[in-house]
Task: structure prediction
Amino acid sequence: MGIPLRILSDHSRFREIVRGRIKANLRKFLQKGEMIGKRGQELISIPLPTIDIPRFRFGQNGQGVGQGEGEQGAILSPGEIAPGGGEAGSDSAEHALEVDLSLDELAVILGEELCLPRIEPKGSDHLSNQRVKYTGINSTGPESLHHFRRTFRETLKREIAQGTYDPKHPRLIPVREDKRYRSWKVDESPESSAVIVYMMDVSGSMGDEQKEIVRIESFWLDTWLRSQYRGLECRYVIHDAVAREVDRETFFHTRESGGTMISSAYKLARDILAADYPSANWNIYLFHFSDGDNWSADDTRVCLETLQNDLLPIANLFCYGQVESPYGSGQFVKDLRENLGERDNLALSEIADKEAVYQSIKDFLGRGR
Amino acid sequence: MRADGLVALQKEIERHARDYGLDFFETHFEVCDADTLNMIAACGGFPCRYPHWRFGMEFDQFAKGHAHGFSKIYELVINTDPCHAFLLESNSPVAQKLVMAHVLGHSDFFKNNFCFEPTNRKMLDEMGNHATRVRRWIDRFGVERVESFIDTALSLENLVDIHAPHSTRRPAPESEANERDGHTGFPVQREYMRRYINPEDKLADERRRLELKRQAAKSQAFPELPERDVLRFLIEHAPLETWEADLLSILREEALYFAPQARTKIMNEGWASYWHSTLMTERLLNDSEVVDYADHCAATLGTSPGTLNPYKLGLSIFRDIERRWNEGRFGPDYEACESMAERASWNKRLGLGREKIFEVRRHHSDVTFIEEFLTPELCAELQLFAYDFNEKRNFWELSARDFQVVRERLLRQLTNLGQPIIEVVDASPRGLTLLHRHEGVDLRLDHAKLALKALQAIWRGPVQLFTQQEGKQTLLRAAEGDIDARPD
Result:
């Protein structure tokens, strides 16, 4: 059963206030409260936003009454304090790791925020791999999985507890209850069905700021697509005059210099896809970021050909994001627009600055492909 | 646990509770899932509250607390007749037993404690009516306007006189008849007696007195006496539209309804815990349930250094009272006894404990309960301490275990529900003036300014508040558009 109907409207109204959708005047009273929990060894924080309506109330003046052990002058840890006799402590600080939102939740919010349509996947979603993993220990199981060490440890524990263990004549006799077996779990991972190829222009004209924009944008793209597909693969291509495939780390941190031949990247992407991702089974996403300053008109022609013949026919979506840069001419996006026209699976976006990332994501993903 | 099982259990528990002399309302139990229970808790126990986002906020907290295992509401009970209690579906049978016994304790407390006497026992209906009224205003004026007004008014929600339902502080106005008598004298049956009953000179004196009084009233401050019930004052005197006054009166009524719960938190929880533990251990527990019961009890009564557990404190005090009155550890003889040994073994076998705690639950609220029955011995036994924030070293530290300090702190936290006492002292065309009765703790300045702003929005004129900040007299003002604070 879900949330009871009666509170639903109040709850969604509150959440809209927190997100700043409505009643901006109340949002300034927003308190970023948290619950401190423990996950394993780590303290984690569950955010608990509240809106603190201003009232005539006492300044805390830092005092309270508690109970327990301790001498005068003993230090109380911040987690233990709820000053003011009962109002839940709200401003404990840096000691916890923020787990504000899971990426899934983030994707949901992103989807809501940008009104993104859910993607209709193609291909073999139902194909899945089964993998057996030994994950733990169980007290029942087949003899073939008998775990000797753990069994004898149990025996030892039991005999010590019963007092029958004699260290001088150590002799352990396992009984049925002591037996331990490896236990396993079947991991069902769906055949990866989506691949993203990120391509980025790293020529001299792409500065740090431009890369930052690309990084932010690809993070969000990634988050959204991951929420839509289980098992998403990513490939990263950087190019200046030549293209090469790199890992994620390098992708975001390299700064090359030199000319720009965009076609090189498209060709490489084509080759990667042809080799590893048959289009019948894969949802293919191509993202290309550049400052739009290609080397020559010739090269641009090659780009268009590659796109038209090889990439667009198989891709769910090809997105070209042009980051504004002080050096680039920004011609490339115009060329694409003129020559390829309106297509369902082509998204072009010009990103002026960080603020524009939002709109750009919407341009890219707003089509539900 | 099946419902019919619960009904049988309820009958059994009620029988035992009556045996012990508990006197509770007819109690209706309802079994809810966690979401529903969280919702009811978010709405202050009333599923039929009017729509407002803050209930959604409360719900968010309860739901998250529940989902992440920080807190769990086992039960919820409201002060109505018949008393309604909501139980969590997933409670184990032992927990249901315990919780039902606990609820009967609360129900008895609601019925018998003096604080709850003037409360409306049909509050479910009243809350439902409030919701209908608010919805009707929303239909007429739109949700934005109504909600915004409620938001503003909530800033003043704590400015009520929690004692208002018990008495009227205003002196009865001199009756019309009395004034008329002032002019014409006492009624006279026989005309020839008139000049003896109402001598002319006395009559003249009386007329002069009334005239003076009327003139004095004109030039006198308004309100005549400081008004602690600021909300009521606003309802009666602020230039409000009908719907605004109505909303304000709804807020006030609900604030006053919930005040007794806040005034008796420690006692109420202590009393309920006393009875669930007594009933469980003496009558209800099966052998197989002891461990689960102990586990639950430990969870409810557990303490952590920085917070005060009202269940634990209340229960300890009630048990201490019971023991003291059983053994006769009270009165001048005991007080005067200076031999430690004699005091330690003091036992007159009076057996008055039960009787005494029943009396205490009727006549006390938290403030008087702590003041009267928290003894130095108990304070030490409970390991109570005061703590302060050490600004130099930037951490909280245990500052004192001294009984007087601890008690004073506790009382200060409880007085007026821990809210500052603020009164209307003057209302005139110049504006509304309020006085904060400063008793050692300053107001939180940023909040005070904003709350004053809210007051100004409702009064529709300049407002000012006299208070103290860091030992200096301070005047806060809010007028159209601006706000400032300056030392006076």
